[in-house]
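User: Design a sequence. Structure:
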């Protein structure tokens, strides 16, 4: 970005733009919080309606919410949320000649509904809705205002632990069944499109492999996708923390193993890893008390590595 004030621009105008830019930065939290609100209210699914995606007004959406509000509820607040998110590409706003504003889902907004709902498969398939909800859980949101403490006290507890009674993120998700279930659904929603894209381009990397170990495999959905798409893979080992695999569903040919990847990894013909920022940071000697612990629940796929066992 070019420096403000270049090209002989009027200093007064430069200052006005700077002021507006800082106001926008300061209020950015309104966008994810609004997104969180519409997901909790089930707005995307109400508009989507099994793939119709017909534009609806805020007043028409209200009775479709889960749970529905009283019939006398003013739709004004919902319309404000929809318009804000329309300005960020989640909804398309349609203005009728009579002045009624209706909203449909953009391709970005459609990531919040289950792909299965468009072909009669119900609405329990993967979507990014759980991912949005997970990012804005109270326990995580409480940690962000403590971020500066990681700078002042790098050797101290992570911001998440500071904000949650000293409980680190790993322990929190391991001990809270509801939070752990949400994390699993969020990871499922993210993993499905990631694995589809990965296997469409790189399934040949598993040629000749019979046993795959998925390190940090959560509920086993990524490994299951590999086993379904690659006929030579006959056995899968889903490896994650004991409290994670304890609730993982059973799949044919797959074994769930609990443990610590930094101590030992089960044997296999190939090891599949999705490297997370938190793990890389914590075990690289760079330092552990940064903002990365806030993302312990966030499996950020910046690299997918397949390592052949020697």
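Assistant: Done.
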């Amino acid at each position: 970005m070019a420096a403000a004030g270049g090209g002989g621009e009027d200093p007064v105008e430069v200052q006005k733009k700077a002021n507006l830019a800082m106001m926008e930065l300061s209020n950015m939290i309104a966008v994810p919080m609004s997104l969180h609100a519409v997901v909790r209210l089930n707005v995307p699914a109400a508009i989507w309606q099994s793939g119709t995606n017909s534009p609806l007004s805020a007043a028409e959406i209200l009775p479709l919410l889960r749970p529905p509000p009283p019939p006398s509820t003013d739709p004004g607040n919902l319309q404000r949320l929809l318009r804000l998110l329309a300005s960020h590409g989640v909804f398309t706003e349609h203005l009728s000649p009579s002045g009624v504003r209706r909203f449909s889902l953009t391709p970005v907004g459609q990531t919040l509904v289950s792909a299965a709902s468009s072909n009669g498969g119900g609405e329990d398939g993967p979507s990014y809705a759980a991912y949005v909800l997970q990012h804005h859980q109270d326990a995580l949101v409480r940690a962000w205002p403590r971020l500066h403490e990681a700078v002042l006290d790098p050797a101290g507890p992570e911001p998440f632990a500071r904000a949650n009674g000293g409980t680190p993120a790993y322990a929190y998700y391991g001990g809270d069944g509801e939070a752990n279930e949400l994390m699993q659904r969020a990871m499922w929603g993210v993993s499905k499109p990631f694995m589809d894209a990965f296997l469409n381009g790189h399934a040949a990397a598993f040629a000749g492999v019979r046993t795959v170990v998925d390190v940090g495999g959560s509920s086993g959905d990524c490994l299951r996708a590999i086993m379904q798409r690659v006929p030579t893979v006959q056995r899968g080992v889903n490896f994650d923390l004991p409290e994670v695999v304890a609730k993982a569903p059973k799949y044919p040919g797959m074994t769930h193993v609990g443990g610590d990847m930094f101590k030992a990894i089960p044997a296999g013909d190939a090891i599949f890893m999705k490297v997370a920022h938190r793990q890389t940071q914590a075990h690289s000697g760079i330092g552990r008390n940064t903002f990365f612990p806030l993302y312990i629940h966030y499996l950020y796929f910046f690299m997918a590595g397949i390592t052949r066992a020697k």
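Residues 116-122, 277-306 have pLDDT under 50 and may be disordered. The chain has 15 helices and eight strands.
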